[in-house]
Amino acid sequence: MALVTISGFPCSGKTRRAEQIRDAIDVYITDESYRGMITKVVILSGDGLGIKRNVYDDSRSEKPARGALFSAIQRQMAMDTILIVDELNYIKGFRYQMYCAAREMKLRVCTVYVVALKQQCREWNNLRQENQKYAPETLENLIFGYEEPSSMVRWDSPLFTVLWDEDTPPMAQIWEALTQGNIKPPNSGTLSVIKAPTDALHALEQTTTAIITAILAEQTGLGGEQRLSIPGSTGLSKVSVALPARKLTLSELQRLKRQFVVVHKKAITLGTTEKGVVSWDEANLTSKFITYLEEHVKSYS
Question: DSSP secondary structure string, 200-233?
Answer without folding.
Answer: HHHHHHHHHHHHHHHHHHH--SS-EEEEEEEEET
